[in-house]
Design brief:
Elements (H helix, E strand, L loop, with lengths): L1 H7 L3 H31 L3 H43 L4 E10 L7 E4 L12 E3 L4 E8 L4 E5 L6 E6 L5 E9 L2 E5 L12 E4 L11 E9 L8 E6 L8 E6 L2 H22 L1
Antiparallel strand pairs: 1-2, 1-12, 2-5, 3-4, 3-12, 4-5, 6-7, 6-9, 7-8, 8-11, 9-10, 10-11
């Protein structure tokens, strides 16, 4: 039998039958231990159950916190990927910053980012998110900067229509979802859905950055200009990571020289 089982595997069916027949014996042998555990479970005191419940709640909270953290990390990773894709299509040098504060003044659309003079940031630099132009740096400290958003009522961006090159001025309205395109003649070729990009005129913003999309046209009879509303491309109220755009080296040197001249003039005036 041993040779037949080892060489030819003839007794496997017999072993299977025997194991099936002995299963009740195994169950009966383990029954006393199962019964004792069941009886012990009937007499678990209330304090032990409360403690176990609290332990499970604490563990659940830890797991929920980890899940939220992983979700936040995944969102940040996706945003970084979008920013990287955006920076690849830019010719200018950029650095990634993070929004760390928002102006409490409801009439001032400003945010604070964690990049400042120590990072080379200067007033006037353009700031973008993964979708489009957000605004410009208006004030810097050593480690932070204030950014004026394009939706602020005091902000203006020279833009042009991608489809035909028509130039105009895009003004903030104080509403993060609406911008006004002004001084557009009623005979101009402009349509809903047209993409507006920075024209580069005025030297403040480099050319070609997406700013807004035309959302509404209102032509009043007898009026020389058409009332046009546009929706910002940037997610002004949602973006947390931003790109700070550095101008070409020549422009940056001129700006630095201008700041140096202003400092010297102030010093001479004080003297």
């Amino acid at each position: 039998m041993v040779v037949a089982d080892a060489r030819f595997d003839k007794l496997s069916s017999v072993r299977s039958t025997l194991a099936t027949g002995l299963a009740p014996v195994y169950w009966l042998g383990n029954a006393p231990y199962e019964f004792s555990d069941w009886v012990a479970g009937l007499f678990v005191n209330k304090e032990d159950l409360q403690q176990e419940n609290e332990d499970l709640r604490a563990r659940l909270m830890i797991l929920e916190r980890r899940a939220l953290k992983y979700a936040a990390l995944a969102s940040e990773n996706n945003e970084l990927r979008r920013l990287m894709n955006s920076s690849e299509v830019l010719d200018d040098r950029v650095i990634v910053g993070e929004v760390v504060g928002v102006s409490p003044d409801p009439f001032s659309h400003e945010v604070v980012i964690n990049k400042g003079r120590s990072d080379g940031v200067r007033p006037g630099q353009a700031v973008l998110d993964a979708q489009g132009l957000m605004g410009q740096v208006v004030q810097t400290s050593q480690i932070t900067s204030r950014v004026l958003l394009v939706s602020d009522s005091s902000h203006a961006v020279p833009v042009e229509v991608v489809r035909n090159g028509l130039r105009a001025i895009l003004l903030g309205t104080g509403d993060t979802n609406t911008l006004d395109l002004v001084h557009v003649p009623d005979t101009a070729d402009i349509r809903e859905g047209d993409l507006l990009v920075s024209s580069g005129l005025g030297g403040r913003f480099p050319r070609g950055y997406p700013v807004a999309e035309v959302s509404l046209l209102n032509k009043e009879p007898g009026e020389p200009f058409v009332a046009i509303e546009a929706t910002p491309k940037a997610e002004l109220n949602q973006s947390r990571l931003v790109l700070v755009v550095f101008p070409p080296a020549a422009s940056q040197d001129e700006a630095t020289a201008g700041e140096r001249d202003e400092t010297l003039a102030d010093g001479e005036g004080a003297g």
